[in-house]
């Protein structure tokens, strides 16, 4: 790469936030202290360990520095702010192996695998959803996951905008399911029982309070026991059922597009 090409590249990249530059390893070398003292990945992994154990509120630059045996100012030589650290943590936990393609596997099965691995991030790192996304994904690990979804949809007879919409739909459902599983896990950790989460302790009280004249359409649901999961559930797993219906909708749309081409 020539000097002019390097300058052009630097000009294009300078608009990126500091956290994104750090994630791609494109920051200019600054005063980092003695060689081998610390590294950005080391700091990020220490912060993740604290968040996994104690929650996101326990993460601070001083706490992370203390866990590593360094001063707080040592961390600021590598990462400029706590916000940058949080965004780097968010990307780091998305660094999991992308499944290899298997012959004979349908796109539906591949999307289910995408959802399962996405949900696992929320289950294994309960704090993940507490960090808001500040922009569209820009960091390498998140973009690699998006690339995976584009691979799954590569033969779809749709344009790029339709693929992005499918991605948003499936990812949003994954996020919702992940947050539910996270909350269920927290309830089990604190109370050791799912009864309060499903509301089975409140069935009789709800049946007393929900009157047919005030809640004419909810009343039959409450009385049947389905609301508090006390009736036989023919669809078994609610979240899997919802995902199948989303995939049905995508499949119907694809078939419609194929017929038009």
TrEMBL record:
Pfam families reported for this sequence: TetR_C_1, TetR_N
Keyword Nucleus: no
Positions of the HTH tetR-type domain: 37-97
GO molecular function annotation: DNA-binding transcription factor activity; transcription cis-regulatory region binding
Record-linked PROSITE patterns: HTH_TETR_2
GO BP term (any one): negative regulation of DNA-templated transcription
Tagged with keyword Cytoplasm: no
DNA-binding region in chain numbering: 60-79
Gene3D superfamilies, A to Z: Homeodomain-like, Tetracycline Repressor, domain 2
Keywords recorded for this protein, A-Z: DNA-binding, Transcription, Transcription regulation
SUPFAM superfamilies per record: Homeodomain-like (SSF46689), Tetracyclin repressor-like, C-terminal domain (SSF48498)
Full protein name: TetR family transcriptional regulator
Lineage, uppermost ranks: Bacteria, Bacillati, Bacillota, Bacilli, Bacillales
């Amino acid at each position: 790469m020539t000097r002019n090409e390097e300058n052009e590249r630097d000009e294009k990249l300078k608009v990126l936030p500091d956290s994104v530059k750090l994630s791609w390893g494109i920051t200019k070398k600054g005063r980092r202290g003695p060689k081998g003292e610390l590294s950005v990945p080391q700091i990020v992994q220490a912060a993740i360990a604290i968040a996994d154990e104690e929650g996101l509120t326990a993460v601070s630059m001083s706490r992370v520095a203390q866990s590593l045996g360094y001063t707080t100012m040592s961390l600021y030589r590598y990462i400029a702010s706590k916000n940058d650290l949080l965004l780097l943590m968010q990307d780091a936990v998305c660094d999991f192996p992308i499944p290899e393609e298997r012959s004979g596997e349908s796109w539906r099965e591949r999307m289910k695998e995408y959802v399962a691995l996405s949900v696992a991030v929320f289950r294994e790192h309960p704090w993940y959803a507490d960090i808001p996304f500040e922009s569209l994904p820009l960091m390498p690990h998140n973009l690699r996951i998006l690339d995976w979804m584009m691979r799954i949809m590569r033969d779809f007879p749709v344009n790029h905008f339709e693929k992005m919409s499918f991605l948003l739909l499936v990812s949003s459902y994954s996020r919702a399911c992940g947050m539910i599983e996270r909350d269920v896990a927290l309830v089990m950790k604190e109370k050791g029982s799912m009864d309060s989460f499903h509301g089975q302790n409140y069935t009789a009280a709800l049946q007393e309070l929900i009157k047919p004249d005030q809640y004419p359409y909810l009343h039959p649901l409450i009385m049947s026991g389905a609301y508090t999961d006390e009736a036989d559930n023919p669809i078994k797993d609610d979240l899997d059922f919802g995902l199948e219906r989303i995939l049905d909708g995508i499949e119907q749309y694809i078939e419609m597009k194929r017929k038009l081409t």
